[in-house]
From TrEMBL, chain A:
The lineage of its organism: Bacteria, Bacillati, Actinomycetota, Actinomycetes, Micromonosporales. Gene3D superfamilies: P-loop containing nucleotide triphosphate hydrolases. Residues 2-227 form the ABC transporter domain. Belongs to the ABC transporter superfamily. It comes from the Bacteria. GO terms for molecular function: ATP binding. It comes from Paractinoplanes lichenicola. Keywords: ATP-binding, Nucleotide-binding, Transport. Transmembrane segments: none annotated. The keyword Transport applies. InterPro entries: AAA+_ATPase, ABC_transporter-like_ATP-bd, ABC_transporter-like_CS, P-loop_NTPase. SMART domains: AAA. The keyword Nucleotide-binding applies. This is ABC transporter ATP-binding protein.
């Protein structure tokens, strides 16, 4: 269970996250939707204690992330575009993180196998394709076998097979009773992966709903999403002549 | 803390830059030592023990920059790549992370620094074999002390690097600042002429060349041991300041 209470973040006069409150329940995949720049990544970083909120709090099973003992065993996170050193091998990267939380070395090989990177584990991650980097990010998230998973744009850069793999993996993890929270700006992909949706724009909560409810309005999911976020999109291209 | 230390040790040894900087430090000091020895072979009058020995550790000028960069990169390498977010998500207690980095980086740099220092000494001695120049023996406390203190000075430099890296978070900025801190004070001290030594004895490079890596410190300077302690003090200030900012800033 992830719980946000009036979570707020300001950068100077700009309010990136504005009094955000919602809960993410276990057992289902919850999609975190919003246009670019709506505050999704900032929210995720605050949940992980990487950025300090200016107001409110984010709790994981009732406690702040920073208060968790061996946090990787409680929360697994995939951060945007691979938070790892390009000169280090995937195996070394995972081994270092495993050591930090007293996880057994065998777990490193297990997650490498789960994400299909065993054959490339000795290579420097700088040589990886975007899809392989995302797979390594997923391996990091799974390393501690956590009950809560946070994934920021996990399908970015993945090919259709990779996207399906992520989708099945996330649904499987939720079916095991875990809390799965996935951000995306792609409504069509979220419609296939998520059950519940949290929609934000300009850092504010626009809707807490389900895919089924959102689609029940009559128009397509995409139209429904645009209707929700139309007031809050910062950058929009003009129509081509 | 123990697990965080293990993480930092795995991270340190699993990137190539660590090994290149370590090898370059040892090679730089060995090369400088050999160069000095060879240069003095045909020197007239015959060189003294102190002349050969003091100059044969001159490679530490370069080694301090290389090992300082090693310390810097332990931190800025993480900010440059986004790795810092993985690290801090795994160990949210930030001061523990920094303490582990300082411990691992300091111990590694001390080890490499000692190896480099011995390499400089040995290369210098080997290069003067068969000449009339008297050999410097490690049995002589003044010699052994200088070799050990030079290694310790180099270890402290890496810690200063860790601190600067944490403060500045950017490789170029932190390494540039490290260079500036090493070289700029020399010119400043020069401006004060004779009385410059009163402040010069606090300057890293002057301490290294005239108090640490020498048999007898230049009069007016602190002893080698006090100089190295002063370096450790600088390192502690840099790391502690870094720790304060690390705790307050968003990753």
């Amino acid at each position: 269970m992830i719980e946000l209470r009036e979570l707020t973040k300001r950068y100077g006069r700009q309010v990136a996250v504005d009094g955000l409150s919602f809960r993410v329940r276990p057992g289902v995949v919850t999609g975190f939707l919003g246009p670019n720049g709506s505050g999704k990544s900032t929210t995720m970083r605050m949940i992980l204690g990487l950025d300090a909120p200016d107001g409110g709090e984010a709790l994981i099973d009732g406690v702040r992330y920073g208060a968790l003992d061996r946090p990787l065993t409680r929360v697994g996170a995939l951060l945007d575009a691979g938070a790892f050193h390009p000169g280090r091998s995937a195996r070394a990267h995972l081994s270092a993180l495993a050591a930090s939380n007293d996880l057994p070395r065998t777990r490193v090989e297990e997650v490498l196998r789960i994400v299909g990177l065993t054959g490339a584990a000795g290579r420097r991650t700088g040589t990886y394709s975007l899809g392989m980097r995302q797979r390594l990010g997923v391996a990091v998230a799974l390393l501690g076998d956590p009950g809560v998973l946070l994934l920021d744009e996990p399908v970015n850069g993945l090919d259709p097979e990779g996207i399906r793999w992520i989708r099945d993996l996330l649904r499987g993890l939720a079916a095991e009773g875990r809390t799965v929270f996935v951000s995306s700006h792609l409504i069509a992909e979220m419609a296939l992966t998520a059950d519940r949706l949290v929609v934000i724009g300009r850092g504010r909560l626009l809707a807490e709903t389900t895919v089924a409810e959102l689609a029940a309005g009559g128009d397509t999911l995409e139209d429904a999403f645009f209707r929700l976020t139309s007031e809050t999109t910062d950058y929009r291209g003009a129509e081509a002549a | 803390m123990r697990s965080a230390t293990r993480m930092e040790w795995i991270k340190l040894r699993s990137v190539r830059s660590t090994w290149w900087l370590a090898i370059a430090s040892v090679v730089a000091m060995a090369a400088a030592g050999a160069g000095v020895g060879l240069g003095y072979r045909s020197h007239a009058p015959v060189a003294t023990v102190a002349q050969i020995f003091n100059n044969s550790l001159a490679g530490a000028i370069l080694a301090q920059l290389l090992l300082g960069a090693l310390g810097v990169l332990m931190v800025t390498g993480e900010y440059g790549t986004g790795m810092i977010r993985s690290t801090l998500a795994a160990v949210p207690r930030r001061r523990t992370v920094l303490a582990a980095k300082a411990l691992v980086g300091g111990a590694a740099a001390l080890t490499v620094g000692l190896a480099a220092s011995f390499a400089g000494y040995l290369a210098g001695q080997l290069a003067i074999r068969g000449t009339a120049i008297p050999a410097a023996s490690l049995g002589d406390w003044a010699i052994l002390r200088a070799v050990l203190l030079t290694g310790a000075y180099l270890g402290a430099t890496a810690l200063i690097g860790v601190g600067l890296g944490t403060l500045l978070r950017h490789s170029g900025a932190a390494i540039g600042t490290l260079f500036a801190l090493v070289f700029v004070p020399i010119f400043v001290v020069g401006l004060f002429g004779e009385s410059g030594i009163a402040i010069g004895r606090f300057m890293p490079l002057l301490m290294l060349l005239n108090a640490v890596a020498v048999t007898t410190p230049t009069p007016g300077l602190f002893s080698g041991g006090v100089s190295v302690l002063l370096m450790c003090g600088y390192a502690a200030v840099a790391v502690l300041l870094g720790g304060v900012l690390l705790r307050r800033r968003d990753a």
